[in-house]
Amino acid sequence: MLFFLISCFSFSFILLSPMKSSQWRLLFSSCFWKDLSSWLQKGISFYQVPMIIKKKMMMMMMSLGSSKKPENNVVVEEEEDEEKKKKISLLDLPELTLECILEKLSPDGLCNMSAVCSSLRDMCTSDHLWEKHMKHKWGRLIGDAAYREWQWHIASKQRETLINQTKHNGFFRSLYGLIRPKLDQKTTTTTCLPVDSIMACYVSLESGKFWFPAQVYNRENGNIGFMLSCYDAQLSYDSRTDTFLARYSPHGRRTIEENIAWGRLRAPPIDTPAHVLHISDSLNDLKPSDHIEIQWRRNKEFPYGWWYGVVGHLDSCDRNENHCRCHYSDMVILEFNQYPPGSRWRQTTINRKDHREVGNEADGFYGGIRKLYKEEEISMWKSLRPSQIHE
User: Fold this and answer.
1) What is the pLDDT of residues 293-344, one digit of tens each?
2) Beta-carbon neighbour count of residue 167 at 10 Å?
3) Among 156, 173, 258, which residue's Cα sits nearest to residue 210?
4) Residue 48's closest CA among 87, 1, 110, 88?
């Protein structure tokens, strides 16, 4: 007991006496407390201190020795704090640098980034970032007719919002749930994407929610009755199969077609509705071997489809280029070479000076004519030409 009192008194005296900083570091070093614990343990054993006191004293020494962290750990923690201070946020980058980064992102990446915070959402949903993606993927299909349809779609959405704003679910409950359907359904955004933004149009197209007008080559996927034709339809995109669903005019054999590939679609080249006769402006330019499209329909109730053909020679012409006078005649021969010679569909004649819808219930009705000037259009029709002539 005497030894214990002397030790406590000595320890108290050390704590109360003034010491230099180096002495304090020595006092609170792990080595000091380790040696002190060993020395006291030997003293306690020598003087036969009761077991209960021994245990309490040893626990106190061990706790004091472990309470002070090594000096090296303190230095490491200070260095880590400094490194944290040096780190910067993405939003700390200059605006031009951040814009360059966002321009490199895919549509999927922009949608993910827009869900991070409100600042990035405003940047990632801006029209100038989405205009490039819209043009790259949808520019070939979205023509003037589809643009008007989208404007009508916007107006209907705005009316719906004004009627009952409580039913407005924002941006399909997620900015990117419709582009990436496998993402967590619980992830939602707290604000609505403007319905008139380019991003809203892009996502509506990708989701298949927006049905847009376009034209389909070789309707019913190669059916002989529609070979080398192009018909108006309402299209919806299926992102799972990267194909389209088409709804045709209610008149005809079928009104719906699935799994239409991108290569069989085009935006309407002219702004003429399917039930309206096209006013031709190139009749005087037609000459043999010119490539044309002509409107044709089965009867007056059906919509027009555009059919590919070439300008032929008159029966009186010897087909010699040096002597051909066909382009001076009022009568123009149109040939549809997908049909065999002698077929009633193989050839028809129009009057370039007084052209209007001509035909009958048996052979159908021929309407307006477009002369094809672009090699791209001509090459597309040639690629669709069948390998053999059909009856």
Assistant:
1) 999 999 988 999 999 999 999 999 988 888 899 999 999 999 999 898 888 8
2) 8
3) 156
4) 1
* CA 82 vs CA 85, 301, 348, 379: distances in Å: 5, 79, 85, 65
Tens-digit pLDDT profile for residues 141-166: 998 889 899 988 888 776 666 565 54
Determine if residue 228 is left, alpha or beta; phi over 0 gives left, psi from -120 to 50 gives alpha, anything else beta: left
C-alpha dihedral sign at 156, 162, 167, 173: positive
Q: Which residue has the tokens 């090594």?
A: 70
Question: In sequence order, which residues have a C-beta less than 8 Å from that of residue 146 and are 6 or more positions away?
Answer: 212, 213, 214, 267
- Per-residue HEC secondary structure of 226-280 comes to HCCEEEEEEEEEECCCCEEEEECCCCCCCCEEEEECHHHEECCCCCCCCCCCCCC
Instruction: Give the position of tokens 């892009």.
Output: 202
Question: Which of 165, 93, 154 minimizes the C-alpha distance to 123?
Answer: 93
| In the chain, domain spans | 2-83, 95-204, 212-266, 283-384
Q: Is the dihedral of CA 127, 130, 136, 139 positive or negative?
A: negative
Neighbours of 283 (CB within 10 A): 17
Tens digit of each residue's pLDDT (9 = 90 or more) over 171-228? 444 444 444 443 344 444 444 566 778 999 999 999 999 999 999 999 887 678 889 9
Query: HSE on the CB side for 133, CA within 13 Å?
Result: 25
Its pTM surpasses 0.90: no
The number of residues in the chain equals: 391
